[in-house]
Design goal:
homodimer; 9 helices; Tetracycline Repressor, domain 2; transcription regulation (chains A, B); DNA-binding; DNA-binding (chains A, B); mainly alpha
Chain lengths: 211, 211
Amino acid sequence: MELDTPKPRRRGRPPKQADGQRNTRAALVRAGVELLTEKGFAATGIDEFLRRVGVPKGSFYHYFSSKEAFGTELIENYANYFARKLDRWLLDESTPPLQRIANFVADARAGMERHGYRRGCVIGNLGQEMGALPDAYREHLADVFTDWETRLARCLELARQEGSIAPDSDSRTLARFFWIGWEGAVLRAKLELSPTPLDLFAQGFFLGLGR
Amino acid sequence: MELDTPKPRRRGRPPKQADGQRNTRAALVRAGVELLTEKGFAATGIDEFLRRVGVPKGSFYHYFSSKEAFGTELIENYANYFARKLDRWLLDESTPPLQRIANFVADARAGMERHGYRRGCVIGNLGQEMGALPDAYREHLADVFTDWETRLARCLELARQEGSIAPDSDSRTLARFFWIGWEGAVLRAKLELSPTPLDLFAQGFFLGLGR
DNA sequence: ATTTAATTAGACGATCGGTCTATTATTCGC
DNA sequence: GCGAATAATAGACCGATCGTCTAATTAAAT
C-alpha cells in the first residue's frame, strides 16, 4: 500500500502529448485487479482503490460510470491477462503438450508464492461472491471459464492425438475437470498460505490422465 | 426472506421453564449460517441478520460481543452440522465405503438443487474471503477442512483395506484431493446454477480411484 | 418488596459507500 | 483568437452500516 502519493495531481484537461503518464485510468484498473485477487468485490470499497492509487473520487466516476461497470472492466482485464499467460505456455510448440500444462502450473504456483499466497484468482473470487454481486456478472464469469477450458482442451487434445493420454479421453471434459479442481486448489492454497494444495491437485490430475 | 415477523417479541427476562421458544440466539445463528452460504461475511451487514430474524440490535449485542465473535460461532455451528451430515453417510456400515461417499455426494447435490444452486459451503466462502477477514479465522477454517479430511480418509482407508481401491493408495492424500476439488466444484455449481460441476468432479474422482 | 438478572428497544456517533455537482485546465471549432 | 466543449480533479453529500450505550420491561432470587 503506497500511501501518500505527494504528487498533487493537476486538475483540468491534460496536455495532449508528452503528458508523461496517461495512466490514471489504467492505474485504477491495475489496482482494482490487485485488490480483487486479495479481497472480495463487495468487501472492497471504492475508497480503497482510490487510496491505493492516490486519486480522488471524482476521477473514479469520471472514468467509470459505477462500481459495477468498473467490476466488469476488471473481469475483462483479468480474463485477458490470464488468457495470454495461459497461451504463453499452452501454445509453446517446443514443448510436449502435457509438459506445457505442467509448466503453466509451475508458473501459477510461483506467482502465488511471490505474493505470499495472499492472492488468488479474480474469477474464482467473484464466482464465490455471486450471491452478493450484480447478476449480470454471472454469465460473464462463466464465459471466462469456458474460454480457459477451450484453450486447455486444445492442448489436451494434442496430447491425446500424440498418445500421451488415453485415446478414448474426452479433452473437453478433462479440461473442465481441471479448472473446477484448480479453482478449489487456489482457494485452499490461499487459506493455508501454502503451495501444497496446488501441487496435490496437479499431481492428482496428471495421475488421473495416465489411466 | 421472511420479512415482517409480526410477532412483537416480549421484552424482559423470559419465564424460566415452558418458555416455548428459547430461540432468539439460535435463530440468529441459523439465519447467520444461511446468509453465509449465500453471501460473503463482509458483504453481509448485521442488520441483515437481524431483519431476517426480526430482532433488534440490542439483542444481537446481548448475545454476541461483536460481529467477529458471531462469525466464529457460525463457523463452529456449520462445521458441526456438516460433520454430522458427513458421518451420517460415511459411517453407514450397511453400505460399502465407496458407495457411502457417492451417497454423500448425491445428498449434497440434492441439497444444492433444493436451494437453486444459490447456496454453497460456508467454509469455502469464508476461505475465499480471507483477505478481508479477521486473521483469527484462518486457522479455524483450516482446522475444519482437516477434520472433514480425516473423516473422509477413514472411509477411504476402509475401501483400501477392502480392496476397492489400489492397495498402495494414500487415503489421506486422496481425501485431501477430494476436498480441494469439491470446494471448486461447489463454487462452480453456484456460478453456473447447475449440478454438472458436482457430477463431473465426483465422476473424475471415482475414476481416479479406480487406477 | 426489593434487588438482581435477562432480554428487548432503539437512539447515537463515527465511518464509509457510492453518487453528484463544482472547479480548473486544456483543446477544438469556427 | 475567443467561446464552447472536453478532460480531469476536488470534495460535498446523503444514506447505510457498525458497534456501543442507555433505557425500558419482565421475571427470578432473596
